[in-house]
Amino acid sequence: MRPAAGLAAGLCATLLLAAGCATPVAPLPASPVAVGAAIRVDAEAVPLDPNDPSRDRIGAFAYAGGVSITSRETSRLHGMSDLKVTSDGRLLAMGDQSDMLEARIVLDGAGRLAGLTAATLISLKSPDGADLFAGGAREYDSEGVARLASGELIVSFEQHDRILAFPKDGGAPREAPRPDIRYTDNKGMEALVAAPDVAPDA
């Protein structure tokens, strides 16, 4: 897990989205967010240059907009470790406590990033059906996420280094093959990318 400020900056620079990584405004819930729970997400525009909000370019780089996201309905919307954006405007993001955010990107009239809608926050389960969050930091430290061509999701974890494959239609995940590498503590697989038409057990 990385400091919140560095994470937000890295996401903004790479994917034009600043995740809501500030200190939660509410206490951590006693139990994980229910699977499939719809949440309201509030978005605040993040300019490329706070001293000149009209600026939208750095050399050949064109800034498509950025938002800081928060929710008044849960304190689990934080610590986004990885996110993917599809060509049809869907967002998939993995928090570092085994919470997965899915939403649709909202653009303004000028085609700039304005916010998120249709958001859900899901607490991932372990192969035995228990909430990963309940197992403590060594079990829930999720990092990378990718959706395979089959519809399955794969998620990488560090501390307890492994990759879990989650079925398309729900159900318990299974362990998927991972690189035969011995990682040092808390320096595991930070990101995942799906190769087209490749299953996790191939």
Write the layout of secondary structure elements.
Blueprint: H1 4-15, E1 37-38, E2 42-45, E3 57-58, E4 61-62, E5 67-70, E6 80-85, E7 90-95, E8 99-107, E9 113-123, H2 137-140, E10 142-147, E11 153-157, E12 162-166, E13 174-176
Antiparallel strand pairs: 1-9, 2-5, 3-4, 6-7, 7-8, 8-9, 10-11, 11-12, 12-13
What would your notes on this structure say?
The chain is mainly beta. The chain folds into two domains: 1-123, no CATH class; 125-202, no CATH class. The protein is built from two helices and 13 strands. The chain has a five-stranded antiparallel sheet with strand order 1-9-8-7-6. Strands 10-11-12-13 form a four-stranded antiparallel sheet, with no helix packed on it. A two-stranded antiparallel ribbon has the order 2-5. The model is unreliable at 1-35 (pLDDT under 50).
For this entry, what is the oligomeric state of its chains?
single chain
Helix and strand composition category = mainly beta
How far is it from the N-terminal to the C-terminal residue, by CA? Answer: 29 Å
Outline type: globular
Please estimate the helix content: under 10%
The topology string of helices and strands comes to HEEEEEEEEEHEEEE
The largest beta-sheet arranges its strands as 1-9-8-7-6
Topology, number of strands: 13
